[in-house]
Design a protein that fits this description.
This protein has 965 residues and is mainly beta. The protein contains twelve helices and 44 strands. Strand 25 and strand 26 form a beta hairpin. The radius of gyration is 30 Å and the shape is globular. The N terminus is likely disordered.
């Protein structure tokens, strides 16, 4: 990450000043010019600039706050083609479900609606607590949830650099900057015409990335007193299917991983009242069995014969007791590997800006940004599950019947069952109840289109020695999701199954009848709109800064201003007329969360004072008062300092507080009931601990639904941030920085505690177990709540070495993030948990102990080369159900997930006039992601972790850039 600030132009700068330009920012890029010799009298001067994290313009880049600056050249050298990829590359970013791979599949209720969204998550605080800016001002959050900015809307081709404030900034920018600030800064005065094309192609195929961009601009601000430019870019991410890589494999039972489904392409039979097997089936040892697949019976061909990605259902892994062998004749299907590893995405982005120099002291500008992103979230085909309930979709009238069309198949199933269990156990002629994966139905697809824009105009300049900046902007993000393949109207499906048109017992090579396929086509719900949403933000801000006096260390500078903002959000459910809404099977409509436009006004004033008490000691005081309609006001201070006891050493630190109001969707979303997937849940009122144990009365399995949704009684979150660090530059060829940080969040807004917590602390959460008149648990309440909070701390380090080699210049950079502590607590009065760093956590940010990038770069003349190592530390894996219950440990079970290391190489040649060529190899050694046995009912990735690794393997990149003038 290049730290060389491009604004260095002409006031003497100390060796530490120049070194900090590297140390503050991460990986330094090799420079074509030789470094100044020690003792050189060469001087440089600095224009007064604003760096992210401060409103005061100054020449001093030795800031008290840790700011990472990533230059365009470094981004291109790493083969990074999107803001999402950049965040995956950065060590300060958390490891959450914030990318198009990690959020491709399973998601908790409060993350539904993030179709096609890529988020920024600094220091593991979440995308909703990380402020994303474009040219220093806000953009709208994504239209479907309104919680976080979608990085796919950022016009990445026009980016000149990215500044990352690795510290809380609520006192400067507002309440949602708890984790930090990412400021994408575009060009402002481009002249010329440039076209570029980029391709990123994995060696094994699938997951290709293509990008093409055009940039044109004209007008010289100094000579013509105007400049205007336009950048347009198009990008396409091809799909990477879950079965396209060998490591994506859910059938590794010896290591603790096996699919938890008996919905297979060759159907599994269940004992339901009124069905063929209603009397129950018994194994030779007398145990009752259920969920029988005839392929897995003794003497049968085996589950693998049933089709691709079928295999035995490992009942031992998913049982809570050793005596539970009911599924011993079951087959499973690798549904995690059937999901996609990378969602297909197409984006069109544009940004234009016109700047007018009114005179030598004032300039005005207008800017427009627009984007259109189309994402296709693809899941495995639907599972058809028979039910004995008359009101269920697949009630007894839809079970596999015996008639002239079905007789041959029916008799095949009957003969196989009677051969094993005896004819007396069967009711010939009764329909067959089953669970089936409808491959002919096609994969389920949710296609989401997001249109975003921002219009901004402003004026800035200097009056009487005071700098000012006024800006007015309006930004919007509007999204709509519609059904693709794989979804069908209930009525059409029921009719097809009732007649026996669809045969759930076909072997590979056999096909459904033309009549059955026609029935599926006629019942298709493709094109039905699920929901849509719109998020808008209108903002006016004014900032004034200047000097109000002198202190022994220099000018006493102050900035003050105001920020007026209106936020709005609306969410639309099923747009079809209420009287004509035929049901669509398993479609995730979200009518319960439909929300007419909700608005709130935010009024803020802020100030910042830079106090250079002495030549070697300075402090900055900042404060902001925000008033939110509906929540009242909050004041948040920030104090930072820098002390330079030696020419080569600067010590810095900061303390601040934050305040974060709940998003509209968390306040006003409706209530949703969804299926509970836990297999080991018992009623904690009658079974302390709430874990199933069939041998103990009161510990029988229960199966309540889960209640999720908004909570209008939510209170704002609060936070406290601290940091302390140093920058050291003893010689011109070496510098380093190290910063300790701590973030404590109070009243953290989350979904209600998970089932493990709810049953462990039943006395505290007894009201969350909702019962019917008989006392049976029918719902578990997991709506949004203010939880106790979280406490995280860590250390970030950056080391840079540079020198000369073989007639060129080289540098080595190590940028790392060490997470020391991650604790949470359920309620404010409770103590914090044990440290969870290095442990598996579902959905949210995975707290890795250590992450780093280690890079070597060398350049000479027209050539430059870079080699970078990306390292992600291992962690404790999620335990299989049988391991956590203690009754069965797989032979190769390893509780530790291995580290993940990959290498990227690139070379650039710029020897042709106007032409720049960059070739790269990502994942040079073709390293597979490390194995994990995490449970795929709650996580994406079949045997691998998408929050950590890139599943594409070795990939080749090529960028061609040509400047016409």
């Amino acid at each position: 990450m290049s730290a060389v600030l491009s604004r260095i132009t002409t006031a003497p700068a100390s060796a530490l000043t120049l070194a900090i330009a590297l140390a503050l920012a991460g990986t330094a890029a090799a420079q074509d010019t030789a470094p100044a010799e020690t003792g050189s009298e060469t001087t440089r001067t600095l224009d007064r600039i604003s760096v992210t994290g401060s409103r005061i313009k100054r020449t001093d880049i030795e800031a008290a706050l840790p700011v990472t600056v990533i230059q365009k050249e470094e981004i291109e050298a790493q083969g990074i083609s999107s803001a999402e990829q950049l965040l995956m590359y950065m060590n300060v970013a958390g490891n959450g479900s914030d990318n198009l791979s990690a959020n491709a599949g399973i998601a908790p209720a409060d993350l539904r609606g993030n179709n096609g969204v890529s988020g920024a998550n600094l220091r593991g605080q979440g995308a909703d607590a990380t402020l994303v800016l474009l040219n220093g001002r806000r953009v709208a959050t994504h239209g479907l949830r309104g919680t976080a900015v979608d990085l796919n809307s950022i016009p990445f081709a026009a980016i000149d650099r990215v500044e990352v404030l690795r510290d809380g900034a609520s006192a400067v920018y507002g309440t949602d900057a708890i984790g930090g600030v990412i400021n994408f800064i575009t060009r402002t005065d481009y002249q010329g015409a440039q076209v570029s094309a980029f391709v990123d192609m994995p060696e094994e195929g699938g997951g290709n990335i293509y990008r093409t961009d055009f940039l044109v601009g004209g007008g010289d601000l100094d000579r013509d007193r105007w400049n205007a430019f336009l950048s347009v870019g198009a990008k396409k991410n091809d799909i990477l299917r879950g079965n396209a890589r060998d490591f994506s494999n859910g059938f590794q039972p010896e290591r603790g991983l096996s699919p938890d489904t008996r919905g297979t392409p060759f159907a599994t039979i269940f004992n339901l009242a009124g069905s063929l097997t209603a009397a129950g089936l018994s194994a030779p040892d007398g145990a009752t069995v259920n969920g029988v697949n005839i392929l897995d019976l003794p003497g049968g061909p085996g589950c693998e014969a049933g089709g691709d990605m079928m295999g035995p259902y490992d009942h031992r892994l998913w049982s809570t007791t050793a005596t539970n062998v009911a599924s011993q004749y079951g087959c499973a299907w690798d549904y995690p590997a059937a999901a996609v590893m990378l969602q297909p995405l197409e984006t069109l982005q544009a940004i234009g800006r016109a700047t007018f120099r009114l005179n030598d002291a004032h300039q005005a500008y207008v800017e427009f940004m627009g984007s259109n992103a189309k994402a296709n979230r693809i899941f495995e085909p639907n599972q058809i599950s028979s039910s004995a309930t008359e009101t269920a979709v697949f009630n007894p009238s839809t079970w596999y019947p015996l008639n002239d069309r079905t007789r041959e198949t029916y008799d095949m199933v009957y003969d196989a069952l009677s051969g094993q269990f005896g004819a007396d156990a069967l009711a010939y002629g009764a329909p067959i109840a089953y669970r089936w994966r409808c491959m002919e139905c096609g994969p389920r697809e949710i296609q989401t289109t997001t249109k975003a824009f921002r219009f901004m105009t402003g004026i800035d300049g200097t009056v009487g020695g005071w700098d000012y900046s006024l800006g007015l902007s309006r930004a919007s993000s509007e999204s709509e999701s519609e059904l693709g393949t794989g979804y069908h109207y209930v009525e059409g499906l029921q009719a097809a199954f009732a007649r026996g048109l669809l045969n759930p017992f076909l072997m590979p090579g056999q096909q459904q009848s033309p009549e059955a396929l026609a029935a599926l086509q006629a019942a298709s719900a493709q094109g039905v709109v699920l929901y849509g949403g719109k998020s808008t933000v209108t903002n006016f801000d004014a900032v004034f800064s200047g000097s109000i006096g002198q202190l022994p260390g220099g000018d006493l500078q102050v900035a003050f201003g105001a920020d007026l903002r209106r936020e709005a959000f609306e969410f639309n459910g099923d747009p079809r007329a209420a009287e004509s809404r035929p049901a669509v099977f398993n479609a995730p409509f979200d009518d319960a969360n439909a929300l007419p436009e909700a608005t709130r006004d935010v009024k803020a004033v802020f100030t910042e004072i830079h106090l250079p008490f002495f030549e070697r000691f300075e402090a900055t005081l900042a404060g902001r008062y925000d008033h939110y309609s509906g929540f009242g006001g909050t004041a948040n201070p920030k104090v930072s300092f820098k002390w330079q006891p030696l020419d080569a050493l600067a010590i810095r630190g900061a303390y601040s507080t934050g305040f974060k109001v709940p998003e509209f969707s968390k306040l006003f979303s409706g209530m949703t009931e969804s299926q509970n997937n836990a297999l080991d849940l018992a009623d904690p009122a009658t079974c302390p601990g709430g874990v199933v144990d069939e041998t103990v009365a009161g510990c029988e399995q229960i199966d309540p639904d889960i209640l999720t949704g908004g909570n209008p009684d939510l209170a704002p979150e609060e936070s406290r941030q601290k940091s302390l660090g140093f920058v050291l530059a003893p010689v011109d060829w070496f510098n380093m920085s190290m910063d300790w940080w701590q973030i404590e969040r109070i009243n953290t807004i989350r979904t209600g505690p998970d089932l493990d917590i709810l049953r462990e602390y039943y006395d505290l959460y007894s009201d969350n177990w909702i019962r019917d008149a008989s006392g049976t648990v029918v719902l578990v309440d997991r709506r949004f709540v203010n939880s106790g909070g979280t406490l995280m701390s860590g250390v970030e380090v950056d080391l840079n070495f540079r020198g000369e080699l073989a007639g060129g210049n080289w540098n080595v950079n190590l940028n790392g993030s060490y997470l020391d502590n991650y604790q949470d607590k359920l309620l404010e009065f409770m103590p914090y948990s044990d440290n969870k760093v290095g442990e598996y956590i579902r959905y949210w940010s995975l707290p890795l102990r250590w992450k780093h990038t280690l890079g070597f770069a060398w350049s000479r003349g027209d050539w430059s080369h870079s080699l970078t190592q990306l390292y992600r530390h291992g962690y404790k894996d999620e335990e299989p159900t049988s391991v956590s219950s203690g009754h069965y440990i797989p032979s190769q079970w390893n509780p530790d997930v291995d580290r993940y290391i990959s290498y990227n190489y690139s070379t650039t040649y710029s020897g042709f006039e106007g032409l720049r060529l960059t070739f790269g190899v990502k994942n040079l050694l073709d390293e597979d992601p490390p194995f994990t046995a995490h449970k795929n009912d709650w996580a994406s990735g079949a045997g691998w972790e998408p929050r950590i690794a890139d599943p594409r393997g070795r990939a080749y990149t090529l960028m061609v850039q040509y400047d016409f003038w």
